[in-house]
Amino acid sequence: MQQLIEKAKRGDDAAFLELFNEYQDLLYRMAFLHVKNKDDALDVVQETAYKSFKNLSTLKSPHYFKTWLIKITMSTAIDLLRKKKKITVLKPEYAESLPTSDHDIALSLSLKEMLNTLTEEEKSIVFLKYYDDCTIQEIADTVEIPLGTVKSVLYRALGKLRKQVRRADL
Amino acid sequence: MSSAFKQTFNEIEIPEELTQRVKLGVSEAKAELVSPVPAPLPSKMSWHKKAAYTICTAAAAAGLLIGSAFVSPTVQNALANFPFFSSLFKSGPVIGLIHDELRYKGYNVMSIAQPAGSEKIISIYIDAPDKEIQSSEADVKKIANGILASQGIDAYTVKVEKYIEFTTKGEYVFTAEEKILDQIHMNIHETLRKQGYSFQTVGLGIDKSGKLMEYTIEVPRNEKRTAEMLKTAEQIVADASRSEKVRIVTLNIEDLETEGRKSNIVSALSEGLMGKSEYKVNSISHKMNPFTLIIKTSVHSKDENAQKVSANIQNAIDEFLSSPEMKDYVKGISYEIQILSKDKKKLN
To answer: Among B134, B135, B133, B152, which Cα is nearest to B91's?
Structure first.
C-alpha cells in the first residue's frame, strides 16, 4: 500500500485508482446515507476521487488513507447538502407543492427510515461502527469529536432506531 | 444488531457507473495537476462539470432529471451559450468557485451559505480560532469579492463567520401525543406492508405550526387498490380515536420529470436574477401547478422605476426561456410570472 501511495503521490493515477477502488463502495454508501439519492452520491464520490488525488501530497501517513478518504467524503456530502439547501429560495407557503419523497425506488423502507431518522452526525457514526466495524476511538478520530461524545451520539442514535429495528424484524 | 445494520447498509446498491465516475474524478484532477490552472480562478467546478457521460447514462437509465436544486449540466450548457447568463454559468455557480479558491488558498472553509430571504449575503464559514478568522477576514473577503466581480455579480455582501458545529444534546423525548401519532404511523405502515400493498412511503403532513394534519401514503401508479388502502389506514386512525385525515398520493414518474426540470429552471433564474443588482430581485419562489414564478423585488410600487424594473425582469426571463438553447428544457412547460413590489403589489 505504501508503495502504491508513493507512486500515486508522484502522479501515477493507475496506482491511485487501485487504492481508491478498494474503498469506493464504502465511500459511495457513506455518501448515499447523507445525500439520499444515487446521482448526488455519485457526484460526491467523483468529487472525493478528484479532491483526494489532487491533494494526496497532504496525506500524512499511508496508515490514515482510508480515514482520510472517509473524511473527505463526509465533508463533501455535507457541503453538497448545504449548497443544495440554499440555492433555490422556497417560501414555506409553497413548499407543500414539492414532492414529499426523494423518489429513490431502490431504497428499502427500513433503510429509508434510518436515513430519515438520524442526523448527519449520527448516520456517519452508526455507519462507521456497524458497517465498517470501526472502534469508538477510530470513529472519534475520523469524525473528529471526543470519545465520550461518540458514545453518547451512538447511544442516542440506537435509541432512535430501536423502533425501526423492531419494525424491520431484525 | 451489527450484522442487521450491515445488511441494511448493504441495501444501498452500488451503481454500475461508480468506477467510471471515480476514474472521471481522478482524470480531472490529473489534468489539472499536469497543467495548473492560472490564478486567480481555478477552472475546476467539479460539482457541475459532470461529464456528458453522466447525463447520458442518467437519462438513459431512468429517463429522469429529478428535482435537484442544482442547475443540471444540460441547463448549464444551454445557459453558457446564452449571453444573459453566460458569465454566471460558464464556470458553474459562483459559490463553488469561491469555495474551491479559498480551500486552494489554504482556508479551512466548512461551508458557504447564501441564506434565503431578502438580505443578499454570502456567509463564509471557516473552521479556525477566532483570532485567525479576524486576521484573515479581509483577505477572504477580497478573494470572494474578486470572484463575484469576475462573474458579474454585484448584489451580494460577503460575511466571514466562524464555523460552529451543530450538535444536539441529550436524547429527544416524545410527548404523549407524539407517541400516539407515531404508533398510528407505524401501524399504518406495518398493516399495509403485511397486507401486501405496494407503496413508497407513509408520511406525515404537518401544518405551519407543526400540528399533524394528515397521513399521506405515496403509491406508485400501478397499484390499483388505493381505495382499500385508504379504508385500512382510515380504520387504524379511527380505532385510535383520532381524526387525522389519510390521503393517497399517486406517484407519477412523468410529473416528477417535469417538476425536476421546473426546479432547475427556478434555480437558474434565481442565481441569474438575484446576482445582478439591476434586476432588484430579492427572492424567487415558485408554485408547481400552474407553474408560476413568483419574483419579489426591492422596489416600491410607487417608485417611478417600478414598471421599468418589472419589464426588465419579464424580458430577461422570457428571452432566456424562449431561447433556442432552452427549447428542449422548457418543452411542454408553460409558466406564469408574478413580479411583486416591496409592498406586495403585482407589478406586471
So the answer is: B152
